[in-house]
Write a structure and sequence with these properties.
Layout (H helix, E strand, L loop, with lengths): L3 E6 L4 E10 L4 E5 L5 E4 L6 E10 L2 E10 L3 E3 L3 E4 L2 E10 L4 E2 L1 E3 L3 E8 L3 E9 L2 E9 L4 E3 L3 E4 L2 E10 L4 E2 L3 E3 L3 E8 L8 E3 L15 E4 L14
Parallel strand pairs: 5-12, 13-20
Antiparallel strand pairs: 1-2, 2-3, 3-4, 5-6, 7-11, 8-9, 9-10, 9-12, 13-14, 15-19, 16-17, 17-18, 17-20, 21-22
């Protein structure tokens, strides 16, 4: 078998990696990767708790349940999968009082979460004295580059600066969409296509400056795969 576990080795006297040779319903046979000692032991059974889950998606909300080990710590920002959807924990209510940033599962009464398959990327298009707002839905782990061209409301625009959820302003580089509070944009150069990364107006430059065309075409990498927690 290719499985491995970290567990205490009596021969070594410390925690070491063990190869799983055989796994049954009650016992597991392992071999220490350091001293090669083989032994069989009964792993402790996880105690599961069933937590009430309140899910929100846009204007809709509904109740469900989340099964997790009783000693698991659940915090705001914790991600998991439910019925094929990616979920993000936004609040935790305990059996004692109020909402918390995190708590042990055995102490939790209600978990609040949102469907996190996509996030709304907020775009502000600046055209002289006029600014228009748009939104496009993207994967939370989509990298938003300064200079990247997007299309919304029939308009193509190039990201000029990024405002992060930590209130930082980026004039170069990228942020993951989940961390973008707002992307400030200029009209895209003529001929630029969605996904291109183009030269953008420098800070303080006049808004009617003629920018060059696309400098490169960037393909967003595959979204980061999140291993779902046990349910």
């Amino acid at each position: 078998m290719d499985d491995a576990v970290i567990t205490h080795c009596p021969a070594c006297g410390e925690e070491t990696e063990h190869a799983v040779l055989k796994a049954g319903d009650a016992n597991v046979t392992v071999q220490c990767s350091v001293c090669f000692d083989v032994r069989t032991f009964s792993p402790p059974r996880l105690k599961l708790v069933r937590l009430r889950l309140v899910v929100s998606h846009g204007e809709a909300s509904w109740s469900d349940f989340l099964e997790t080990p009783s000693d698991e710590e659940i915090a705001v920002g914790f991600e998991f999968e439910l019925d094929g959807h990616r979920m993000l924990v936004t609040g935790v209510e305990t059996t004692t009082e109020g909402r918390h940033e995190k708590a042990r599962a055995s102490d939790i009464r209600v978990v609040q979460a949102i469907v996190f398959d996509e996030v709304a990327l907020k775009l502000s298009l600046n055209e002289g004295e006029r600014t228009s707002s748009f939104e496009v839905n993207v994967d939370p782990d989509h990298p938003v580059h300064v200079g990247e061209v997007y299309e919304a409301g029939g308009r193509r625009m190039a990201v000029k600066t990024l405002k992060s959820d930590q209130n930082r302003t980026l004039h170069k580089g990228f942020l993951l969409a989940r961390n973008v509070r707002r992307a400030f944009c200029d009209p895209a150069p003529e001929g630029a296509r969605v996904g291109d990364v183009v030269a953008t107006r420098k800070r303080g430059a006049p808004a009617d400056r003629k920018d060059k065309g696309p400098t490169s075409r960037v393909k967003a990498p595959n979204p980061v795969k999140h291993k779902p927690r046990k349910r």
